Amino acid sequence: MSTMPCKLQEILICGHRSFAATGLDERLQSLGHRVTCFTRGPLGRDGQTVTGPVSTLYKNPHLNRPFDTVINYIMIKNGTIQQNEEYTQALLKLCQQRSIRRLVHVSSISVYADRAGTVNEASPCERNASRKGSYGALKVASEISLLQHRPPGLKLSLVRPGFILGKGLDDPIVGMAYRFPWNRLLILGNGSAQVPLTSRHLLNLSMAEIVESVPQDDVEVFLIADSNSPTRAEYLEDCCKIIGCAERTIRLPRWTWFATAMGVSLVEAVLRPKKRLSPPLRTACQHRTYDATITEQRLNMRLAVDWKNEIRHSMPDQTPNFELPYTQLPHSTITAQKITYIGFGRVVQSLHLPALRQLAYVDNIVAYDLEARRDNSGIAVQSIRGAKLDPSDLFVVASPGPAHGEALELLGVARGPVLVEKPLCLNRTDLGRWAQMSRRRGHDVSVCHNYRFKANVAAMMRHLSRFNPGRLHHVQVHLQCPPVRNDGAHWLRDERRARSLLMDYGIHFLDLACMLCTNEWKVDGVRIALDGHGHTNLIEGRLTCSEYSVSYVLRQGFMPRRARIEYTFQNYMVSLGFFPETFTSQTSHDNPIVYGQQQRELARATRNKILEKLTRRSHDCSHAMAYVAATQADRKLAQCISLNRVRSFYEVLLRLADRVYTPLPTEQQTHVQQRA
Hints:
alpha/beta, Rossmann fold, 22 helices, elongated, disordered N terminus, disordered C terminus
């Protein structure tokens, strides 16, 4: 048990800017100690911080004062063993010249000998630095130098922390795994070996206890690690979920690593490289556990650490800045007994009625269109002129986009939820009218952004819910499609009037890019170009909100049809492809296997599309899910396409449309007519 000293101390921290030492000076000062910090740099002093060469530390005039305790974190990581030994000699000279009574040296668990079994404070340490990897060799050499040249009267406390977790950690899987293609982590070495973990906060608390305790021996050892730390396999598997570094781990048999280490040793014996790989490989093969019970009793504190929480907080931007609209598509049916259509044209025949068949809907359908007729499906279509709508379990507005405003008048007195085909409206006045009607009716209006329920988008939602993506930084949208003037819908062919490229062709892809944020969006620059017919054939620009930004390129014309959306998260990237629908994620480095995997996904999606065409059976359930959402058969899904959620998107979309489709100057109109 630690014993409090009778007086406060003068303490020198060498290497206070290192990752492991961050915050220790504040901790010691809060306990009343006077702290001086030393770091490498030109000779000088700035407040409590002293800088200078490390090899002549004992000559530094700014350290010419007595200290009770020196704490050393410095290791010349990119230096040689000789350079590190020169530094330890300088450190010991400083202690001897200033009559310092105690040196606390922060070492590492890597100094222990490569032996299987349980490691504790009394376990034997390696005394041949060449048997360790580059990092372990420097730690071993420094300890040996301190033990061999320690001046009489200097108490030496060797602190050996495990793998330190804390804010600012560069790599949580360093030396334990390799980012393998196929979004996998290859576990290096024995997956059942324990990974001794601690946190920087816990290390600082331990260091404060060590400083304030009375040394019991001339040389004492403290092992700072959680005795219940996970195995390497458990740690890396949780890293996949917590910080999204991969989708799963690959674990090879232990004997393969022994064989690899032996093979590498033979090659190194012949080639004699400067950097040897066989020592860390041999270390990784060992099966060992760690027991810090003696240190816990000595310091009277528990060294248990919530390592899963520490991993998340060690890496930057791990808290998502968005909320997933859903994580899993339900297997639902709709309970509506009557569905009323306003508009019964091509989109209803090709998409809506097949969606109802997928949901096994066989109840009453009432249809209105411009002219009364008997539809090919046998449904009697009534004229919308002078019609008065009766209550319905669901109203579906499927008229052309410019005519949606007329449906507002018909729906004013009718009761029931409403599903409106995209685009909801072409101006902000109608957007306000739809919102007002939604509030007045008591039923939220749903907008048929069915792409939110596409199979590839649903796969992305499941992936993001399983593997933490961290913060979303940017989304890139690229769409190119055939000429608008070849479209089957005549009302879309006048691109400038119907705003076709933006409000019909590009709307779903921009919606998916903006879907994860419902805050206010801004139009941050836009550029357009016209073709020889006076149609917009290029819209390029950027949208921004408080959380992330979206860049987009929308094109129509001679180019082949293609659509792709790429999301850049903190931890990995995901990509959505369309025509056909694909989803891929990438956590590994760029390599041919990654792109081969993307090609195989594209080939699979293409094959499925061909089979759907040949069998005339579509597996696309996105419109069916839109009906499930509109009838509120699933509350989570209902919120996904509700007007409340999509309104911020439509507000920025309409502002963008006003920028893109402003009337052309007279000179530009004349130029377009001449080119035509």
